[in-house]
């Protein structure tokens, strides 16, 4: 097949991307229909510019859009990329291979200036979406407040300012759209995994020797047995 195309993994259906804009979703009026309950009626758009294609998440789904496992807002696609609309997986093909940075995003040229606290809020907001698990919604204001040890009202004020800075319009899934934009701009990176201590938080105590001492310590000297005193099992009186 000449030109870009999309292959729906579940059914094997292959659809050419001939139009400049093709809508993706579960609704009957979309161009590429995915019959999966995790997909919104109008979920995303695939935009073709000559031989190139990029995907745009419309921010209307609580399950979001991922490219090769990473949540995105907008992203230029490469040949062989796997795009997940909710839980529905599709593979892109027929895209010319070039020296294009796979992380290039069609996004605003300059990220807004952020305070240290705003960066903390965004990091906490996006942490669930950057996990290795299947897509989960970004953190709530209450979860962010608990994470940063501040009031929920303070977090909501920060979020309102961040919506304005990133020009996120009012509507459903506003936190998700903000998280997608922040991740697309590369402002938040996955955090290293946290080492979880053993259950109970205490290291396992090494076994003791029969005389009560621990391995790695010199054995306890034996006390002489007084005349007439019974000896411990296995010990002879001197």
Plain-language structure description:
- This is FHA domain-containing protein.
- Residues 191-238 are annotated as: Disordered.
- InterPro entries: Cell_Proc_Reg/RNA_Proc, FHA_dom, Sig_transdc_resp-reg_C-effctor, SMAD_FHA_dom_sf, WH-like_DNA-bd_sf.
- Pfam families: FHA (PF00498).
- With 238 residues, this protein is of the alpha+beta class.
- It has helices at 116-126, 141-148, 152-165, 174-184; strands at residues 5-8, 14-16, 21-25, 32-33, 44-49, 52-57, 65-67, 70-71, 74-76, 82-85, 88-93.
- A 6-stranded antiparallel sheet has the order 2-1-11-10-7-8. Strands 4-3-5-6-9 form a 5-stranded mixed sheet.
- A hairpin with a 2-residue loop joins strand 7 (65-67) and strand 8.
- The protein is elongated.
The helix-and-strand class reads alpha+beta
What letter string, H or E per element, gives the SSE order? Answer: EEEEEEEEEEEHHHH
Query: Helix count?
Result: 4
Radius of gyration: 29 Å
| Terminus-to-terminus distance | 96 Å
- What is the strand content? 15-25%
Return residue spans where pLDDT drops below 50 for at least 5 consecutive residues. 102-109
Shape, per Cα inertia axes: elongated
Describe the largest sheet: 6 strands, antiparallel
Strand line-up in the sheet with most strands: 2-1-11-10-7-8
DSSP strand count? 11
Task: Report the mean per-residue pLDDT as an integer.
Answer: 78
Question: Helical proportion?
Answer: 10-25%
